Amino acid sequence: MERMIKSLQKMMREKAEYKANRALMDSLPDDYRFVFLEIEKYMFSIAVDESVMPVLMNTLESFAVASSDGRSVLSITGEDAGMFCDNLIKNFRVNTWPGRQREKLNQAIRKKFMAHREKH
After folding, report:
1. Among the four 37, 71, 94, 117, which has the fewest Cβ within 10 Å?
2. What pTM, to 2 d.p., does this model score?
3. What CA–CA distance (Å, rounded) separates 109 from 99?
4. Does residue 80 come out as left (phi exceeding 0), alpha (psi in the -120 to 50 range) or beta?
5. Residue 120 above 70 pLDDT?
6. Torsion of CA 24, 30, 32, 37, to 10 degrees
7. Which domain holds residue 84?
8. CATH assignment of the domain containing 12
9. Number of independent structural domains in the chain
């Protein structure tokens, strides 16, 4: 129970920080803001928990720096924004629904074969 409370408190802190960073997002040029909002939708659609929040905050800060340097948003994300997001997910170890399902699959198989080994 205590672990769950701490997890919820952490999530609430990160969401508060994220909301504070919304002002930064609002200050971005239109192209950056559009791409960030699309990335945010994608990330929220596949993330299982609050592990996505640091990724979004980091991305927002990167976008702010790049825009102030006069770079285009596509110089950051490349032409394949989905691949950009997937790389962020991998590098930041975001917990995703497909990842959760993959782990359930592996656990079921391990359980079956561990029990099978123990019988023989």
Report:
1. 117
2. 0.75
3. 15
4. beta
5. no
6. 80
7. 2-119
8. 1.10.1900.10
9. 1
